[in-house]
Amino acid sequence: MADLICASSLSGVPELIKDRGGDPSEFLGRVGIDSALVGKYETFIPLSALSTLLGLCAQELDTADFALRLAARQDLDILGPVAIAARNAETVGDALRSIAKYAHVYSPALSVDVMLGDPNAICRIDTILHKLPYRAHVVELALGLAFKTFQVSVGSEYRPALMMFQHPRIADRQTYTDFFGCSVEFGREQSAMLFPRGLLYRRLPQVDPLAHDVAVRFMARRNAEAPFSDAVSTLIVRSLPVGAATLEQVSSLMSVHPRTMQRRLAGDGKTFESILDDSRRELAIGLLANVDVPLSAISRQLGYSAPSTLTRSCKRWFSMGPLAKRRDLVRRT
After folding, report:
1. Phi and psi angles of residue 305, each rounded to the nearest 5 degrees, phi first
2. pLDDT tens, position by position, for the chain (333 residues)?
3. With contact defined as beta carbons under 8 Å apart, do 255 and 265 qualify?
4. How far apart are CA 232 and CA 226, in angstroms?
5. Which of 12, 109, 159, 245 gives the lowest tally of CB atoms within 10 Å of its CB?
6. What are the distances in angstroms from CA 287 to CA 43, 105, 180, 282?
7. What's the burial of 167, exposed, middle or buried (CB within 10 Å: 0-12/13-18/19+)?
8. Within the chain, which residue ranges are assigned CATH 3.90.1520?
């Protein structure tokens, strides 16, 4: 399963880091996240980068409950079209089922389940990547957001019947009870929120059926693998300058075996090598259009060990050398 999550998951992170006395750019840079991606709905980042960021902030900013503090600053809108479908569902249960069914649109590495019990229903959230660094922090962020979503749906007075976490307690127990307003247990068999089953049938106050249908139709075209090739391209571009854009290294970043990556890309009619070449070509076009960037720097950005390789690539891509292509691009602007 791809190590991915929508970059909107970073909403509120820079402000919280700054409030806790840290440098947002420094923390984001350490985990390989460009600050410009914060809040972007159309871009994916590695979930492992987000989880590492949460863990580092918790440790180094002396803020053990960093993930819960972040959840308090975020809202359902970070889920993009998933949020639109959930907000415009007929009932709370319908909203939860939309989130569970289309969670992969937000992150193919998250698993959301809604199960009926008596007298309580259970909303269970987990990460499919079990070797995720600082995994517990991601789970707390996800369940914190799920709790806030419930409050928006059924009223700010809502309190779960029980919160359960698989992992050991990270922050003071009082921190959890203050946030969730209920008993919180750790070391359980699953991470989940228990709530009265009857809440599933409560109707939502403002429903736009058209908005709901448009969102569902959009998400129905996006299966769990849809962002995979785009994520591969993003990681390749990020890895090129440091010479780490190999099949093995990018596969490791995405927590998949190289053969698995090739098989998934083949399903889309692509190969790793074709995406690598396309990514280099598009990056070269953008860099060549900037006359202030020397060819030697462009060669390094593309992960080439010698400028002569850039020349050969440009002749293959554009039927002309890099200087001629630069003149062509500048003339068109």
Report:
1. -85, -15
2. 468 899 999 999 999 999 999 999 999 999 988 888 898 877 888 888 999 999 999 999 999 999 999 999 998 889 888 888 888 888 988 888 888 888 888 888 888 999 988 899 999 998 887 778 999 999 999 999 999 888 888 888 889 999 999 999 999 999 999 999 999 999 998 999 999 999 999 888 777 777 777 777 767 665 554 556 777 777 787 788 878 889 998 887 666 788 888 888 887 788 999 999 998 998 898 889 888 889 998 999 899 988 899 999 999 999 999 999 999 888 876
3. no
4. 11
5. 159
6. 21, 31, 49, 9
7. middle
8. 5-220
The CA distance from 317 to 301, in Å, is 17
220 residue type, one letter? A
Residue 231 belongs to what H/E stretch?
helix 228-239
Cα gap 260→277, rounded to integer Å: 20
Tell me the backbone φ, ψ of residue 248, rounded to 5 degrees.
-65, -45
Q: How many CA atoms lie within 13 A of 187 on its CB side?
A: 2
- Cite the beta strand spans of 157-254 per DSSP E: 162-165, 184-186, 192-196
- Separation between Cα atoms, residue 58 and residue 170, nearest integer Å: 9
CATH number for the 5-220 domain, one of 1.10.10, 1.10.3470, 3.90.1520, 3.30.70? Answer: 3.90.1520
What is the Cα–Cα distance from 240 to 303, expressed in whole angstroms? 5
User: d(Cα 106, Cα 102) in Å, to the nearest integer?
Assistant: 8
Angle between helices 228-239 and 272-288 (to 10 degrees): 60
CATH fold of 228-332: Arc Repressor Mutant, subunit A (1.10.10)
